C-alpha cells in the first residue's frame, strides 16, 4: 500500500507517517518545513520519500492508495496575522481533492474542534458552525468543499475534527504547541506559566497515539463524512496543571492574568457518539499516561524549547 502525508514533518503528520511505515506502507511526505522539521521523521528517514514542497505539488505525484492531509498552516494566530492563508489553504486543498478524485484514493484530512467555538458542550458533528476566525473559516470551507466534491465527483473522505492534540515531538511548533507541551517545557525550565482568567476553561486533551489510530481507522474505512477525534472528557487548565505537576514531581509557578483574546474558546468537549458508532474509533489513552509519555520524551531533549 502507498500513502502520501502532507505536513508529514509536523507533529501529527510525522506520527502518522511513522505508523504507516511500521505497517508496511510506502510513504511520501510533502512539507514546506514551516512549523515542521525533518528531525520529526528521523526514525523513518531512510524508509520514506521526502519532498520540500507545498501540498498542491500532489498533482505531480504518482497514484497512491490513501492521502493524509495535515499540511496547512496549523494555528489560529498565523491566520490572524495573514488572512490570505485562508485562500492558500483552500487552493492547495482543491489540488489535494482533485488528485484523490483522479486517482480514486481515500482522503483523510485534519479539521478542528475550533469549529464548535460559541456552542455549549458536548460538541457534536451536527452543530452548525458559527465561524469567528480565519483559521476556522479555512477548516469549515475545506469540509464544505469536500462534501461538494463527494456529491459531484464521488470523493471518498474523512474530515477529522481534532480536539486539543498533545504528545511528544511538538518542539518544532514552539509557541504553537499544545498547552501540555508548553507547561512541561516551563516546568523543566523552572519558568512561570501564565493562565488567562481563573484557569477554569476546559480542554478535551487527545493523545497523539489516539489521533494516529483515528487516522488509520478512517483510511481503512469505507465511510465518508466528518468525525470528532476527542476523548469525551475535558479538564480545566487548573486540573491539567495539577496532573502535570504530579507527573514531573514538582510545583510549577502559575500567574493568572486577564484574558486579552477576543473569541477565546472556553470549553472544548467532544461528543464521541458518531465516531464510535460510525467510524469505530474511541480514544484509549488516559490523560495521566499521555502526559507521562510526553514528559519522558521532553526531559531527554538536549534543548528544551524556551520560547517565552
Ligand atoms: N495539534 C492540534 O491540536 C490540532 C487541532 C486541530 C487541528 N489541527 C490541524 O492538524 C494539522 C496538523 O497539525 P500539527 O499539530 O501536526 O501541526 P504542525 O504545525 O506540527 O504540522 C503542520 C505541518 O504542515 C507543514 N505545512 C504547513 N503549511 C504547509 C503547506 N502549505 N504545504 C505543505 N506542508 C505545510 C508544516 O511545516 C508542518 O510540518 C494541521 O492542519 C492543524 O491545523 C491540529
Automatic annotation (TrEMBL):
It holds the Pfam family Epimerase. Coiled coil: none annotated. SUPFAM superfamilies: NAD(P)-binding Rossmann-fold domains. It comes from the Archaea. InterPro entries: Epimerase_deHydtase, Lipid_A_modif_metabolic_enz, NAD(P)-bd_dom_sf. Residues 4-230 form the NAD-dependent epimerase/dehydratase domain. This is NAD-dependent epimerase/dehydratase. The lineage of its organism: Archaea, Candidatus Parvarchaeota, Candidatus Parvarchaeum.
Amino acid at each position: 500500500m502507498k500513502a502520501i502525508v502532507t505536513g508529514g514533518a509536523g507533529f501529527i503528520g510525522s506520527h502518522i507517517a511513522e505508523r504507516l511505515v511500521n505497517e508496511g506502507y510506502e510513504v511520501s511526505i510533502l512539507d514546506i518545513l514551516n512549523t515542521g522539521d525533518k528531525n520529526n521523521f528521523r526514525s523513518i528517514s531512510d524508509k520514506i520519500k521526502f519532498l520540500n514542497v507545498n501540498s498542491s505539488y500532489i498533482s505531480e505525484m504518482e497514484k497512491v492508495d490513501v492521502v493524509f492531509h495535515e499540511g496547512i498552516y496549523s494555528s489560529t494566530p498565523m491566520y490572524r496575522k495573514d488572512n490570505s492563508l485562508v485562500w492558500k489553504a483552500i487552493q492547495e486543498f482543491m489540488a489535494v481533492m482533485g488528485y484523490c478524485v483522479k486517482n480514486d484514493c481515500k482522503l483523510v484530512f485534519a479539521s478542528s474542534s475550533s469549529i464548535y467555538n460559541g456552542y455549549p458542550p458536548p460538541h457534536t458533528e451536527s452543530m452548525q458552525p458559527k465561524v469567528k476566525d480565519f483559521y476556522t473559516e479555512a477548516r469549515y470551507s475545506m469540509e464544505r468543499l469536500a462534501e461538494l466534491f463527494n456529491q459531484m465527483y464521488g470523493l471518498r473522505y474523512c474530515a477529522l475534527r481534532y480536539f486539543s492534540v498533545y504528545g511528544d515531538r511538538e518542539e518544532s511548533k514552539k509557541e504553537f504547541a499544545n498547552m501540555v507541551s508548553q507547561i512541561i517545557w516551563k516546568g523543566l525550565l523552572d519558568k512561570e506559566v501564565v493562565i488567562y482568567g481563573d484557569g477554569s476553561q476546559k480542554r478535551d486533551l487527545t493523545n497523539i497515539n489516539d489521533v494516529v489510530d483515528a487516522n488509520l481507522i478512517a483510511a481503512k474505512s469505507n465511510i465518508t463524512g466528518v468525525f470528532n477525534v476527542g476523548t469525551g472528557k475535558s479538564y480545566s487548565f487548573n486540573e491539567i496543571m495539577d496532573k502535570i505537576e504530579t507527573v514531573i514531581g514538582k510545583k510549577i509557578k502559575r500567574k493568572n492574568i486577564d484574558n486579552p483574546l477576543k473569541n477565546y474558546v472556553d470549553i472544548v468537549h467532544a461528543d464521541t457518539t458518531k465516531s464510535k458508532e460510525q467510524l469505530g474509533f474511541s480514544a484509549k489513552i488516559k490523560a495521566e499516561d499521555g502526559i507521562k509519555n510526553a514528559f519522558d520524551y521532553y526531559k531527554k531533549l538536549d534543548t528544551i524549547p524556551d520560547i517565552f
